[in-house]
Amino acid sequence: MKDSGVDWVEMIPEAWEVKKIKYVTEIFRGKFTHRPRNDPALYDGSYPFFQTGDVARAGKYLHDYKQTLNEKGLKVSTLIPKGTIVITIAANIGDVAILDVDACFPDSVVGFNPKKGIVRDFLYYALGNMKQQFMDSSIKNTQMNLNVERIGSNSLCIPSEKEQREITVFLEEQLQRLDKVIEVQTSQVIQLKEYKTTLINSAVTGKIKVMELV
Question: What pTM was estimated for this model as a whole?
Answer without folding.
Answer: 0.85
